[in-house]
């Protein structure tokens, strides 16, 4: 009897605020683990506070990247998206930011971001919902 491998998804979180990075990582790890048990998948989450470390670890095994808009070293989310586009990587980029500027939001979406989320009390749940939707789409599962 042949056993099927359980699909595994790789998520990367890039936020130079160590506290926020840890909270988002823990929240997504716990909630997606529960969802994975129900829907038949596993998730590995890697978090980075350094842009350089993150970019050195991006490849086509990454399914989803959550990134803050403003990052250290005069870098922002559009720089990350440009890097992904240049390397022809297939991960979905979700920008999470305190910036509530429509121009910034529009520019990141036009650059190729999958979604732009404002940091507030609903952010963790929105990130989880988007991750679940992307994973479900990749699994080909319909509700």
Overview of the molecule:
By secondary structure, the chain is an alpha/beta fold. The protein has one domain: Response regulator (Rossmann fold), CATH 3.40.50. It contains 5 helices and 7 strands. It has helices spanning 18-39, 51-56, 77-86, 102-111, 123-139; strands at residues 8-14, 42-48, 64-68, 70-71, 75-76, 92-97, 115-118. The protein has a 5-stranded parallel beta sheet with strand order 2-1-3-6-7, sandwiched between helices. Strands 4-5 form a two-stranded antiparallel ribbon. Helix 1 (18-39) links the parallel strand 1 and strand 2. Helix 1 crosses helix 5. The relative contact order is 0.19. The mean pLDDT is 92.
Feature tags:
single chain, 143 residues, alpha/beta, Rossmann fold, five-stranded parallel β-sheet, two-stranded antiparallel ribbon, 5 helices, 23% strand
List the helices and strands and how they pair.
Layout: E1 8-14, H1 18-39, E2 42-48, H2 51-56, E3 64-68, E4 70-71, E5 75-76, H3 77-86, E6 92-97, H4 102-111, E7 115-118, H5 123-139
Distance between the termini: 29 Å
Indicate the mean pLDDT: 92
Second CATH tier, the architecture: 3-Layer(aba) Sandwich
SS class: alpha/beta
At the fold tier of CATH, the topology name is Rossmann fold
Which segments are poorly predicted (pLDDT under 50) over 5 or more consecutive residues? Answer: none
**H and E order:** EHEHEEEHEHEH
Largest sheet: number of strands, sense, barrel closure: 5 strands, parallel
CATH superfamily: Response regulator
Global Rg: 15 Å
What is the 3D shape?
A: globular
Helix share, percent: 40-55%
Instruction: Give the number of domains.
Output: 1
Q: How many alpha or pi helices?
A: 5
What would CATH call the class?
A: Alpha Beta
Instruction: Please provide the count of β strands.
Output: 7
Strand fraction? 15-25%
Biggest sheet strand order reads 2-1-3-6-7
């Amino acid at each position: 009897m042949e056993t099927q491998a359980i699909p595994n998804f790789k998520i990367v979180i890039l936020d130079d605020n160590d506290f926020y990075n840890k909270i988002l990582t823990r929240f997504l790890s716990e909630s997606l683990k529960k969802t994975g048990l129900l829907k038949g998948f596993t998730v590995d989450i890697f978090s980075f506070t350094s842009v350089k470390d993150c970019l050195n670890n991006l490849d086509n095994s990454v399914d989803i990247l959550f990134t803050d808009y403003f990052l250290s070293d005069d870098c922002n989310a559009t720089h990350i998206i440009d890097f992904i586009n240049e390397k022809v990587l297939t991960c979905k980029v979700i920008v999470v930011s305190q910036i509530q500027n429509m121009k910034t939001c529009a520019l990141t979406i036009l650059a190729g971001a999958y979604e732009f989320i404002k940091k507030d009390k609903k952010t963790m749940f929105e990130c989880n919902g988007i991750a679940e939707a992307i994973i479900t789409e990749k699994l080909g599962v319909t509700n």
